User: Fold this.
Amino acid sequence: MKERIIENEYWYGACVKYGLNMPLHEKSECILDFSSNTTPNQAMPLLVSSKGRYLWGKTGFEITFHNGEMEFPDDVLLKSEFGNLKGAYLSAMQEHFPFHQKMPSRNLFHKIIYCTWIELTFDQNQKDILKYAQNILNNGMPAGVLVIDDGWSESYGEWRFHSGKFPEAKKMIDNLHEMGFEVMLWVCPYISADTVVYRDALKKDILVRQEDGEPYIVKWWNGYSAVLDMSNQKAQEWLNKQLKELRSMGVDGFKFDGGDSIYYRTDNQTALKVSPDEHCNLWAKFGEQFEFNEFRASFNAGGYGLLQRLCDKEHSWGNTGINSLIPDTLLQGLTGHPYSCPDMIGGGEYLNFLEVAEESHDQELFVRHCEIACLMPAIQFSAAPFRILSEENFKSIMRSLEFRNKYIDKILHYIELAAATGEPVIRYMSYEFPEEPVERIIDQFMLGERILVAPVYQKNCTGREVYLPKGNWKFGDGEVMSKGEKMYINSTPGCPLVFEKI
Assistant:
């Protein structure tokens, strides 16, 4: 089917990883193929228009923008006459992915998240985890939610603490709770091959299989593993039993990693004959039962009560690093994923930290990343800022956390509102100001309907240009009256520029 693009019409949606490519318009020349989600982040079979239209597919689809037209499969639904971007999004959401009216634990947003990944990578162990937590407190940072990352278990699929690395795991969890931390553990839907737990899963027939009936072995980012068949109720019960045992030890929840669509195949043999995207979705559905959760990859999970982190960003200023944080988070909101986290401060790509000397870490980038994250739903550290940064730059980090504290009640209000109404927490300018020429602005955002946030995201900048819509705005201790214009404003490192509509 072909459909003419309306003059001054702008389209947003599909895969969160496409944030920097948004919006698409009558002069766009591109093909978006999300017939299956090949990205390491969230995806929805949805495109939403600033002219009050939307496209929805039951599965992912391919769409071509060419010569002022869109071409897409005949079974993709096109609906219109919803007025503007907000109207189209709310109509699509209510019709196709109504929110579950539940949210992840409030503490995932009210507190700071700390992840042990960058500091310890695969060497997760009791001694260094307790040291990491204690150093957080010793340096004046608040206790929060501590995520113990990949490497804590005996093997993939054998979800119990490694006895050598964690001689007193229950005592460690109790100590962390006493220090004020909640504790989450990294898990994945993979099982290390040629282990006792693998043979048990094989016997129970809860693994994904190949066409010839042999267990399917996937190559993923950390080697080769068998894959749990999440379409099999027995597999879910098998995993749930292990996680409940961890919960009985005091573990508060889990970081559900892996499960990306790309790690399944269309010819996989599964209990319910699901597609790769459907299998990815089953992993998300399983994780929603836990109040403390975190996901990075999902398909058609808009409206689920899941904390959805952006994929690992590089420690860089470019499009694979800090430059993509605001555009991707904006697209999360407009695809039904409002409970978002803009990766780990400084970037979550651990190879960047292994490949460069500590003195080569870009301290300014850490500060600006924190500045971006501080007014987003969740904020997460991994590389310890008190280790990486100078005293002056660490003070900038603390300024960001103070800034967050100032607005935390409003952040929580919009998160709770999202669970009830489905509206994004972080919103495109065009979502709130449909009459203004703001459709292409993707480097500033609205927190709810009244708070405009413009962090600095470019290197060696002491300020930035901000588009301020028409009206009266509170800025700092004063007021600004705007006719709908751009203005350059200086900023303090760690403090985003914030305007509140009066």
